[in-house]
Structures are given as C-alpha cells and as structure tokens.
Amino acid sequence: MIANNIFRVTGDFFTNVAFKPLDAIRFSDNWWLQNSFSWILAIITMAAFVYWMGQLKKFKNEGTE
To answer: Is the pLDDT of residue 39 over 80?
Structure first.
C-alpha cells in the first residue's frame, strides 16, 4: 500500500508541479519560445555528447601508453 502511494505522489508531483512551465510553453502561440526550448535541449545534449566522447578518447589514450 505504501509503494502505491509513493508512485501516486510522484506522478502527481510531476503532473501538477514539475511540468507546469512546460504546459505554459506548449499552449502558447509563440513559435519562437517553443522552438528555442527545443534547441536549448538539443545544444545541451550535443555538448554532453562531445564531452563524453572526449573523456572516452582520453581514457583510451591513457590505456595504450
């Protein structure tokens, strides 16, 4: 019973609190605001990928010496 309540509380939190700003963006008529949010997420993902690949290359180079 407690586990069921934890999942309900978690779902309620994300539905009613954490994603409220995204609902405001979703229902706005501003195309630039909606797409800038998507581009920001894409840029963050690309930067994390480049950093990850750099770390893998550094690790590989340390192992071959």
So the answer is: yes
